[in-house]
Each structure stands twice: as structure tokens, then as C-alpha cells.
Write a structure and sequence with these properties.
heterodimer; A: about 100 residues; alpha+beta; Arc Repressor Mutant, subunit A; 3-stranded antiparallel beta sheet; B: about 325 residues; mainly alpha; 2 domains
Chain lengths: ~100, ~325
């Protein structure tokens, strides 16, 4: 039986690239770093999907004392996420017409 | 002052799953609160407000997405239920069109003449007349035949009820705004054609909006005319707009009652569909004549068919809940 090949959409690829480059980021930082190519209304939906796929992991980080409010969720790429990104980047280089 | 995002989080908690709240909504609110606090700390009051507005819209966007996905969570149903749902929608639309054609059939000469004389706007005036009845009848037939032979799951019951409420809202809009305007335009057009009247005709009961009807009823209050047939007619018409709009949801509830737990055969749903449509129509006329004759209050006459069908649906659901599950019948 064949296991399903991991898939990576354009947005997921962009998020993984940013996370690999910065080690860990939270949603708003991802939106800012992507130069608004990622939208704040959908970035967490994509991150939730990526967490389900096992590409990223998250942890809660307390908000700064002076700001208060809810704790922020910070994301890091997993080993699987890094591998999938590497494979897709290679594939995209070899077959640019299939680039995500 | 309430921290930004608190109200939207309460709304989201009713629509989205706990996982979505934890993974999507809360991080979004955390970002919003942090950004807002930073802007306020730097003294950028307007920037803070702008952030609140933009993030509020983003949050609303996610809530709508989550709510829509929860209502239309097709991926979680079985393939058979998906097909049944699609069949329900298609059959409902087809039945609505058929009822419109059936109700407009007596006017075929008029319609033919209008088309021949290039006055196709006649159709626009007449179709809204048929829609308030076509929508509840069409949806009832659609639900009964769409889910024939199946037991409605809780998720699909919610979906069907959501669809019924949406149809009720459309029906309400037609009854309150479209129908009175179409009636008046039709009368003016006909009057103009025969040279009976020039300009705007005085509106009758069927041409008045809810506000106008309510105003008329109030104007008679405390006068000698208060208990007259004219006032009963106005009051009945006012309440009937509301009750007819609710008819879609009420008849959908009846259909759910028929389908509840026991898979129904073709004959059962056929009988239930035809019986419900004719019974509702008969009760409508019974309620109307009793209300206009002064036997019962005008409001009671208007709500009479809905009352009967709500009781009937409750009875069906009660019977269904007391009955053990039956096997799927052979069709």
C-alpha cells in the first residue's frame, strides 16, 4: 500500500520558508514578513492545517506584561516540514512549471 | 474598556469548534490585543482604532468561514447523505418552479397577451404572487423526496433547518417588500392599459407594506370601526405576512418529523407531501374565513395553519423518539 505523498500549497511553502529562515514566528510576524502576501484572516487557518499535517508545531508564549491579553501562539517548523519544503523546492527547481 | 476581540470570541465560541477556537481564533485575538496595546502605548490612538477595525474584520471573516463550514460540514457526512442533500436542493428548486407555473396557470391568457404585446414585465408582477406558497411547498416536497428512505442525522437535520430558515427569510422579504410593490405596479399597469385611472392608484390591503398596514390598524384603534370587517381584514393581512413567511420553517419541521428515525417509503413521503400541501392550503382558507367572519381573532386565523402543523410535527417527533430504530425498507 502506498502512503499518500505530502502536499504543499503555495501559502504553506511560503510559511515554511519564513519559519525555516526565522526559526520561530507568530501569525502577525508571518503576515509582516510575507510583505502582506499572507493575510491575517487566513494565516492561522493555514497554520492549523499545517499543524495537522505535521509540518509545524506551536507553543504558547505569554504576552508581554505591559500589553496583557491572551498568550501568543508561536510556530516552528518540524523536521517533516523542513524535509517536505526541501523536496518541493528541489522539485520546483527541476520542474518550474509545477512550482507551488 | 473591553479588550478588543472579546465579543467576537463569544460569538466564535458558539459557531466554531474548541480546536478552531484554540488554534485559530485565540491566536488571532492575541495578535490583535498585542498590536492594539502597542499602538496605544505609543500614543497612536487612531492607529489603535484602525488595528481594532481591521483585525475585527479578519476575525469576523474567520468566524463566518468556521460557521459556514460547521453548517455545511459535508466532509463529515456519508456520501449517501451528500447525495440526499444535493437531491433535496434540486428537487426543492424544481418543485418551487412547478408550483409557480401551476399557480400562474389560470392567468395563462393574460401572460400570453403580455408576451405578445411585449409587456414581459407582467411576469415580474405575477411571479411574486406565487412565490410565498411555492417556497414552502417546494421545500417540503424537496426534503421529503430528497431524504426518502433515509434517517436524517442530527447534522443534516440542522442543515435542513438552516436551509428552511433561510428560505423563510427570503419569503419574508418577498411578502413584505416585493409582493406589495409588484401588486401595486400590476394594478397601475392594468389601469393604465384600460384608461381607468391615471397616476397612482390608492393602495389596497394587498398592496400595503407591513408599516402601512400597522399604521392603518392603529388609525382605527379606539374608533367605532375597531371591530369592523375592514380592520379584521387589515389585521389578518398583517399577521398572514408573518405566518406565511414562517410557513417554510414550519413545513420543513413537519417533513423532519415524517423522516425522523424511521426511513420512509415512496408512498409515505408522497402521501405526506401531498397531504401537507393540501392540508396547509385548506387550513389557510379555514383560518381566513373564520377570522374575517369574526369567529376567531384575526391574528389567530392567520397563525392557525402554522399552529396545527407545529403541533403535528411535535407529535410526529414524539412518536419517532419513542419508537425503536427500524430497518431500511426495500424500495
Amino acid at each position: 500500500m502506498h502512503a499518500r505523498l505530502p502536499t504543499l500549497s503555495g501559502k504553506e511553502s511560503m510559511i515554511l520558508e519564513l519559519l525555516v529562515r526565522h526559526k520561530e514566528l507568530y501569525g502577525l510576524q508571518l503576515v509582516a514578513e510575507s510583505r502582506r502576501r499572507l493575510k491575517r484572516g487566513t494565516v492561522y487557518v493555514t497554520l492549523q492545517r499545517m499543524e495537522e499535517k505535521g509540518y509545524v508545531v506551536s507553543r504558547l508564549e505569554d504576552a508581554p506584561l505591559e500589553a496583557g491579553g491572551l498568550p501568543r501562539r508561536v510556530y516552528q517548523p518540524t523536521v517533516l516540514g523542513r524535509r517536505v519544503l526541501a523536496v518541493w523546492t528541489t522539485a520546483a527547481r527541476l520542474m518550474p512549471q509545477f512550482a507551488p | 474598556m473591553t479588550p478588543p476581540g472579546v465579543t467576537l470570541r463569544v460569538i466564535a465560541s458558539r459557531l466554531c469548534s474548541a480546536q478552531t477556537i484554540e488554534r485559530v481564533i485565540d491566536p488571532l485575538i492575541a495578535d490583535l490585543q498585542l498590536e492594539y496595546a502597542e499602538a496605544n502605548h505609543e500614543g497612536h490612538l487612531w492607529k489603535g482604532r484602525w488595528i481594532r477595525l481591521v483585525a475585527g474584520f479578519a476575525l469576523l471573516n474567520v468566524i463566518v468561514l468556521c460557521g459556514g463550514r460547521a453548517v455545511l460540514s459535508l466532509e463529515k457526512g456519508t456520501m449517501d447523505e451528500h447525495r440526499a442533500m444535493i437531491r433535496t436542493v434540486v428537487l426543492s428548486i424544481m418543485s418551487m418552479c412547478a408550483v409557480v407555473v401551476l399557480l400562474l396557470a389560470p392567468f395563462w391568457r393574460l401572460l400570453l397577451m403580455a408576451i405578445q404585446t411585449k409587456h414581459a414585465q407582467m411576469l415580474v408582477y405575477l411571479i411574486p404572487q406565487a412565490l410565498p406558497l411555492a417556497i414552502p411547498i417546494g421545500l417540503t416536497i424537496g426534503i421529503l423526496f430528497g431524504f426518502r428512505g433515509r434517517v436524517l442525522s442530527g447534522r443534516f437535520t440542522r442543515m435542513v433547518l438552516t436551509m428552511a430558515v433561510a428560505c423563510s427569510a427570503i419569503s419574508f422579504a418577498i411578502l413584505v417588500w416585493l409582493l406589495p410593490a409588484a401588486n401595486q405596479s400590476y394594478r397601475e399597469w392594468m389601469a393604465g392599459r384600460y384608461g381607468i385611472a391615471q397616476g397612482t392608484l390608492r393602495k389596497g390591503v394587498n398592496e400595503m407594506t407591513l408599516t402601512e398596514l400597522s399604521g392603518q390598524i392603529d388609525s382605527y384603534r379606539g374608533t367605532a370601526m375597531a371591530g369592523s370587517r375592514t380592520v379584521r381584514d387589515l389585521t389578518f393581512s398583517y399577521h398572514q405576512r408573518w405566518s406565511l413567511a414562517c410557513a417554510t420553517a414550519v413545513l420543513a419541521l413537519f417533513a423532519i418529523g415524517v423522516l425522523a428515525r424511521r426511513p420512509s417509503t415512496r408512498w409515505t413521503v408522497g402521501l405526506a407531501a401531498i397531504g401537507a400541501c393540501f392540508a396547509y392550503y385548506a387550513l389557510l382558507f379555514l383560518g381566513r374565513s373564520a377570522a374575517l367572519g369574526g369567529t376567531i381573532p384575526a391574528s389567530a386565523g392567520a397563525w392557525f395553519p402554522n399552529g396545527v402543523f407545529v403541533l403535528l410535527s411535535a407529535l410526529l417527533l414524539k412518536i419517532a423518539s419513542a419508537r425503536p430504530d427500524d430497518p431500511v425498507p426495500t424500495r
